[in-house]
Amino acid sequence: MRNATTIRPEEASHFGKLAADWWDPKGSSAMLHRLNPVRLGFLREQVDAHFAVDPRSLKPLAGRRALDVGCGAGLLAEPLARMGAAVTAVDAAEENIAAARAHAAGSGLAIDYRHGEIGALGLSGFDLVTSMEVIEHVADKPAFLAALAGALSDDGLMVLSTPNRTPASKVLLVEGAEGMGMVPKGTHHWEDFVTPVELHDLLAAAGLKMGNPMGISWSPGKGLHLSDNLALNYIVTAQKG
Q1: Which of 49, 75, 113, 132 has its CA 20 to 30 A from that of 90?
Q2: What is the DSSP string of 19-68?
Q3: What is the largest CA-CA distance in the chain?
Q4: Residues contacting residue 104 through CB under 8 Å, at least 6 positions apart
Q5: Distance between CA 150 and CA 167 in Å, rounded?
Q6: Does residue 192 belong to any structural domain of this protein?
């Protein structure tokens, strides 16, 4: 039986040290603040299509349960709650969960934050499961995706994002962004990045079918945006079946 431990203590410690700064758009998580609207745009489009929701609806996830895994201090969990979902969010760092709970309370949002190993929490039946920029940090990728699949309802939607392992991502995301202080040093380990083909196979092994990935690119004119270029980072859906 596969070892279900997916948390790397050193990774949890690294991100836990950033907890107090997480909600500062000019702080150590500034790049996530810029990335979040791009991810949310993709997610909203996929939610509308999958659940046949009116694109004009302000609460497209009303009456649905959402799970965000690797939630940090809640940058994605809070928008999901505002979209009407009953949100559960999990993170490996206790400091992040404390910061997330405090921020949600200040925002008047009821989010069920949990600290711990995703496979040990007994979570299931979620209409939407998200995990953004997380799989590259876990110790056991097959076990992690199996746990995500176990939490997803049979007709649910999963949305994942991760850096691609390419020469471009090594130069720009690791050496460039960390070298220039745009991302805290030690955040990325290029050898742990997952290519779309690898993710497809990992998802298939977990009983999930991957959708067509969309790249998240950067240009001086557009900043971060969705594109067909998968060289740096990509976002994708998955479903059971």
Answers
A1: 49
A2: GGGTT-TTSTTHHHHHHHHHHHHHHHHHHHHHTT--TT-S-TTTT-EEEE
A3: 50
A4: 74, 77, 78, 81, 110, 111, 113
A5: 34
A6: yes
Distance in angstroms (rounded) separating the CA atoms of residues 106 and 99: 11
**Cα atoms found within 13 Å of the Cα of residue 203, Cβ hemisphere only:** 26
Q: What is the DSSP letter of 137?
A: G
Place of tokens 């999963």: 158
> What pLDDT, in 10s, does the model give residues 66-93?
999 999 999 999 999 999 999 999 999 9
Tell which wins on pLDDT, 17 or 133. Answer: 133
- How far, in Å, CA of 79 to CA of 56, rounded? 16
Rounded (5°) CA angle 75-52-241: 85
Question: The domain spanning residue 133 has which CATH number?
Answer: 3.40.50.150
When divided into structural domains, the chain yields a total of 1
Residue 74 forms part of a structural domain: yes
Residue 124: CB atoms within 10 A of its CB come to 11
Q: Which residue has the higher pLDDT, 46 or 2?
A: 46
Exposure on the CB side of residue 206, measured as CA atoms within 13 A: 28
**3 lies in some domain:** no
- The 10 Å Cβ neighbour count of residue 53 is 18
3-state SS class at 210: strand
Task: Read off the tokens for 215.
Answer: 């790249």
pTM score: 0.92
- Residue 65 belongs to what domain range? 9-240
